[in-house]
């Protein structure tokens, strides 16, 4: 997973670190990324959208438990003959039915259930099921109102953006954006003072394929659960302040953990921690 659950401009703002200069931008961005990966490990799940396929053991039943899933594009099973067969999309459903992982406040799908009219079962086999799709807690995007101002070739490492007079979402290092079907991770942003913004980006991240993008292509930015983003900001700030003093110490009477992790962060993340392990490759 290549992303951060908060952006550099917010971390440096007066409400967090109050660090107006750019002398330590690279280190601060690294802390945001490290805090995001710590959150993944602590919660036992990822909050970004990862495109790809995963393999599972067949259950011999009409349902299959899967890791957090946003959308499934294909389900394939290996038959007793060894041949791989793709199932029609009408034969399976994603549960919970009303999870809505692409909407703010939604949650991921966690099971694939065979439709009542499908006379099938997931074959009882080792690694006999392949599911292709988008994995993660959610896939929530916001339109930035920004548009590419020139063609972006496949190998471009910068994207030039035209900025409307008002009403657009300001982008910063740490944001993950999407243009057409490609995700890009922003690690630098600079305005030219004439209504144009140049984004330094890492292309083809999180399983998406690079492609050329025409001028005036729409740009969306990924959004994560608010508690997760706030936890990322707070934890990065705690680690940054530790360089100036001793280890983080919880307030008196607080039973939270020490060792550089804020008890507030753990409280914010509590609703998102996975309760049960899901086996899969």
Describe the structure.
With 281 residues, the chain is of the alpha+beta class. The protein is built from 4 helices and 12 strands, in the order ααββββββββββββαα.
List keywords for this structure.
single chain, 281 residues, alpha+beta, 6-stranded antiparallel sheet, 4 helices
List the helices and strands and how they pair.
Layout: H1 8-12, H2 25-43, E1 50-56, E2 63-78, E3 84-86, E4 92-95, E5 109-114, E6 129-135, E7 140-148, E8 158-162, E9 176-179, E10 182-191, E11 196-202, E12 218-223, H3 226-242, H4 263-269
Antiparallel strand pairs: 1-6, 2-3, 2-5, 2-6, 4-5, 7-8, 7-12, 8-11, 9-10, 9-12, 10-11
Beta-strand percentage range: 25-35%
Please report the number of helical segments: 4
> Level of helix content?
10-25%
State the order of secondary-structure elements, H for helix, E for strand: HHEEEEEEEEEEEEHH
The coarse overall form would be globular
| Terminal residue distance | 15 Å
Number of E-type strands: 12
Biggest beta-sheet profile: 6 strands, antiparallel
Mean model confidence by pLDDT: 90
Describe the structure concisely:
The protein is an alpha+beta fold and 281 residues long.
